[in-house]
Amino acid sequence: MKIIAVGRNYINHAKELHNPVPEKPVIFLKPDTAVLKDNKDFYYPDFSKDVHYEVEVVLRIANEGKHVSKKFAHRYYDAIGLGIDFTARDIQNQHKEKRLPWELAKAFDHSAVISPLIAKEEFEDIQNLSFSLQKNGETVQKGNTKDVIFSFDDLIVFISQYITLRKGDLIYTGTPEGVGPVQIGDKLEGFLQEKQMFTCYVK
Length: 203
Ligand code: MG
Prior knowledge:
Blueprint: E1 3-7, H1 11-16, E2 26-30, E3 35-36, E4 51-53, E5 55-61, E6 77-85, E7 87-88, H2 89-97, H3 103-106, E8 112-114, E9 118-119, E10 130-135, E11 138-144, H4 152-162, E12 170-172, E13 180-181, E14 187-192, E15 195-201
Parallel strand pairs: 1-12, 3-8
Antiparallel strand pairs: 1-2, 4-7, 4-13, 5-6, 5-12, 6-8, 6-9, 10-11, 10-14, 14-15
Bound molecules: magnesium ion (MG).
Magnesium ion is lined by residues 5, 7, 54, 56, 85, 174-175.
């Protein structure tokens, strides 16, 4: 499986990092070695001094798809989860300045926390899902999928023009504002529609 992640999909997050609001989705990949599941601990990597949390709603791809049309896009994901796109912000900023790719800042081991996935039928309206992240018991990020720039269906259409979607792939759909650093000892907890989805200790 692969992880396809979307950058700058919430206007207020694009603004907080002083990025322009994109006309097309900003896409990057994480390999399967990035997955961190079952509430496992995250070990702070040696190569960064500024790892940030980014809480994101995650889609699970249900079928192989290439050049998917908007009308059928909803058939290509069957479950929703919540995750963290851990980002080495210092490395990302250095690479952005030099116009280099972001992989070392985004694709490193265990940089993709993922909760258990829930069948999308269990949600009343996936275009109106509230989610949040708590750090040490305090809410640091709050979002709602109604505020995305590119809808889930738009993302499926766009990505599948370039990259074949396969059953079991995950799409991280972007983070709302409020991203910030983690430190060793922090406890991160993700909530989707008030339901606790994951706990992750930074070690
Ligand atoms: Mg992100």
